[in-house]
Structures are given as C-alpha cells and as structure tokens.
Design brief:
- Helices cover 69% and strands 0% of the residues.
- The protein is built from 13 helices and no strands.
- It has helices at residues 2-29, 34-48, 58-67, 74-85, 100-135, 140-154, 157-168, 192-230, 233-240, 245-257, 277-282, 288-297, 301-329.
- Helix 5 packs across helix 8, helix 6 packs across helix 8 and helix 7 packs antiparallel against helix 8.
Length: 336
C-alpha cells in the first residue's frame, strides 16, 4: 500500500502539470483578455463623460501589457507562474487588486461552511434511508420513498432555488427566510445559542438546494450495495447459524456494503472550495462559486488558474484518501 501511495503521489505532478498547461492555453486563447477589458473601460469612460471614443497610443498599450504581464510570450508567462507556484504565490488579482491567495481566503469561509454542512447532512440522510429501503425492499415505504427521491432528483437546482426564494424569502407569499448575508445585523450581540439559531435561519434555503441533488443518488447506492451483500453466501451462512436478522444485516452485511459509499468520502477535501454558481447567484451568497463566475467573465487569469490548480490538487488527494480508506475498511482490497 505504501508503494501504491508513493506512486500515486508521483503521478500527481505530471497530472497537475498537464491540467495547468491545458487550462492556461484555453484561458489565453479566449478573446477579451484583461488588456482588452482595460481598454474598453478607458474608452467607455471617455465616451461616457461626454467625449467621443478615443484611440489608444502605442505607449498606453505597452504600459497596459506590462502591467498585466502580457509583454512576455505565453510560454514565458506560464514558466513565471510555475516558478511563483513553488512559493504559493498565485500572483495578483486583476479585478480585486490584491494577492490572489487573499481573495480566495476571503471567500473561502463562506463556501466552507456550506460545504461541510451539506456533506454531513448528505451522509446523515443517505445512509440511514438507504439501509431502511434495503431492509424494507418491496414495501410501501420503499415504493413511495423511491418516488419522492426521483422527483427530488429531477428538480434542477436553479428551479428549486427560485421557487423557494419566491415562496419563502420574498414578499409575494411568505417572508420567512432572509437572503444574502450569512447572519443578521445584530449577530454579534447575541449569545451562543442565538448565534447558532441565526446562522441556521440563514442557511436553511441554500442548504436544501445543496443537499437535495446530492443525497438522492447516495440513497440508491446504499440500498443497492446492502441488498447485494444480503444475497451473498456468507450472509446466508450467518442466518443458517441462527443469528437474528438484525445482527446479520447490521453487523455482517452493512460493513461491506459501506465500501462503495466511501468513494464519496474523498470529496471531503473539495468542500473547502465547494460553491455552486447557480445557488450562490439565486441566494446572493458571495462564495467560491460566484468568485469563479466573476473571474471567468472578467478574465481574471490569476484567480482562475489558482482555483483550477487548488481544486485539481484537492480532488486527486481526496481520491487517494478514498483508496486508502478502502483498504482500511476491507483488507482484502490490495492496490498494486
């Protein structure tokens, strides 16, 4: 297992290199870079103040290119970015005019709270419901719960978010939940319990959107995995020995049935950058999803490259952790 882990860690380096090279090329091929956007603002500002559309001299163009680092060839810019990466320096944001790492750290706590909360809720709901569906396979509970789950899964997050905002967070029907901020104006004057309730009040609607599409698939995966284990010979042997059904299912079959569920546990690292562009836009949450969207529209290359690199790294480390967890749960698994 140590050899496999070491090999995986070594393969991460060329994989990250390939990801960053491809993304860097795509980003730089996209029209409307930061230099062009800066020129558009200058021209719009001149025309908006009563003047006509102005031309731009070569001196101004050269100064803008130097300011944004576009006075060098593309391969040289990538090599400089790669060199700075060794010191965790992602450069400066063209839009926010501050180091990229500071921009990310400013948005990170918002998405981190939703990411951790949704991950915990998804597993707390999925595993018990999946077990109940497997134990009660073919009953009315299994039938109607499947119908409800399929309906929930088929609802797009955008539609669900808009409906909940209209019905529960607006003046049209009910105005129960707030929008935008993660806490009220008087948050810091509340006691500990009051702060918890205030946070929960603000989290309800976005969390529902985060969780609904996430736990439905996991419920069916848990059910099918447990049902497959129940049909195996060792379970029939345990029953033949006189063990009660509860012991057979929850002590013997459940442990092996949980192995496929562990695949998703590796994603716990990516919750640091969890952020749904759709959900954050609907509920006015200024998190990582909205930062990604704004960075793409404004061609904030340094922010985009930083987000891609960090998410790719966390995703690969998470997958490695999932593989290691497989072996810890079931020693029969051996990665070579």
């Amino acid at each position: 297992m140590l050899k496999y882990t070491f090999q995986r860690l070594l393969w991460m380096l060329p994989t990250l290199f390939g990801i960053t090279v491809i993304c860097f090329i795509i980003i730089n091929l996209a029209p409307g870079g930061p230099v062009e956007q800066a020129l558009s603002k200058m021209r719009f500002g001149a025309s908006g103040s009563g003047g006509s559309s102005i031309g731009v001299s070569e001196e101004v163009m050269d100064a803008l290119k130097k300011q944004y680092g576009f006075d060098k060839p593309a391969y040289m810019r990538y090599l400089i970015w790669l060199k700075n990466l060794s010191t965790a320096d992602f450069g400066e944001s063209f839009v926010y005019k501050m180091p990229v790492i500071d921009v990310i750290l400013d948005k990170l706590p918002i998405s981190l709270q939703f990411g951790i909360a949704s991950l915990i809720l998804i597993y707390l709901i999925s595993v018990p419901v999946g077990i109940m569906k497997a134990v009660r396979d073919g009953t009315q509970f299994d039938l109607w719960s499947s119908v409800v789950l399929m309906v929930m899964y088929s609802i797009p997050p955008l539609i669900l978010g808009i409906l909940m905002r209209v019905f529960f967070a607006g003046n049209t029907f009910l105005d129960i939940f707030p929008l935008g901020e993660l806490y009220s104006d008087n948050y810091y004057s509340l006691d500990l319990w009051g702060k918890i309730l205030d946070r929960a009040h603000h989290f309800v609607l976005p969390l529902i959107c985060y969780v609904v599409n996430g736990f439905t698939v996991l419920v069916f995966l848990m059910k099918n995995s447990l049902m497959e284990e129940i049909r195996l010979d060792y379970v029939r042997t345990a029953r033949a020995k006189g063990l009660d059904e509860r012991t057979v299912v929850y002590k013997h079959a459940l442990r092996n049935a949980l192995i496929p569920i562990l695949t998703g546990l590796g994603s716990f690292l990516t919750v640091f950058f969890a952020g749904s562009i759709i959900i954050e836009q609907v509920f006015n949450i200024d998190g990582m999803g909205l930062l990604s969207l704004k960075s793409i529209f404004s061609r904030d290359y340094n922010v985009i490259m930083a987000l891609i690199f960090i998410q790719a790294l966390l995703s690969m480390v998470g997958r490695l952790i999932s593989d290691v967890t497989y072996v810890l749960v079931d020693p029969r698994i051996d990665f070579q």
